[in-house]
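Appendix B. Chain record.
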Amino acid sequence: MAMETGLQTLSVEETKNTSIFTQKDNFPRYYDLIGDTPLIDLTSLANPKVPGVRVLGKAEFLNPGFSHKDRIVRSIFAKAEAAGKLKPGMTIVAASSGNTGASVAMISAMRGYECTIITNSKCSKEKCDSIKAYGARLMIAKEGQCYMQMETDLAEKNPDWFSVNQYDNLDNPEGHYTSTGPEIWAQTGGKVTHFVMGGSTGGTISGVGKYLKEQNPAAKIILADPIGSIFTNYFKTGELGKGKSFLVEGVGKANIPGCLDFDVVDDVVQVSDVSSFSMCKKLAQKEGIMVGGSAGMNVHAAIEVANNLDESGTVVTLLCDLGIKYLSKVFNDEWCKEKGVYSQA
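Structure tokens predicted for this chain:
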């Protein structure tokens, strides 16, 4: 009996003393798997009025931390380490609606840092549990507390703590400018005509939008925005206005983050909680793709854009994170009924 290795045929006895793995570098660490996510065809969910329209979703839930936030954390850590701002023995602190917190906790574990994550009561139980599973300390802001300000305060009180500051740190959009944008351009063969993305920090839409417009100034960058966020009013009037509550996590804001560059945004599409969560269920039940509420919002907006095109085009959006993080919310019928957002796929 022999084993076929592809290079030579070895007997069973020979395999006991012979390794077919000759180069240790053949195998990546988990950290190395960040990025290079595939595009998935979602055109079957659309009903365009002209031929030649495609809708594509970038499967960011396949990143190691199950969201696109792995990219910005990798960028922020790498830049800070290179500049000597982040050193061995330091503690990292980050305010997050959940996904960045999980990515910070995961990459802190990978690189040997202690970590404190601050979030608010809106963050799903699954995201909170994942943050703690990586070994991070989790703090949940009380009613009336600003969790972003809590990050700043803790960093100021502790000189050996590094503040991620994802909302204003320009290494955030840089992470998408150098990875997500080039990937989308290459994967579509430069045929992407529209990029649709929600904003919280604004890093994704700003970084990707900047890159795509540099390649093709005619590319349209569309901000998907939950009803209740102030971004839509600010884009249309230049005034902040007053936000209202909404249920979709990780998108929309009641202020303007420093990472959000409205100069690259061509239009805004508002999406309700019901539409966002309905799309999550439709993606799961018709395409077998289980994603979170922000991805549902993105896809709903992308399909709206695609259905209104007057000529052929390729609409790309991000499937931001994995739906497993929302089993207690988006995919829980009792929770949806309680919140008044229950709908069938």
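Further analysis of this model is presented in Appendix C.
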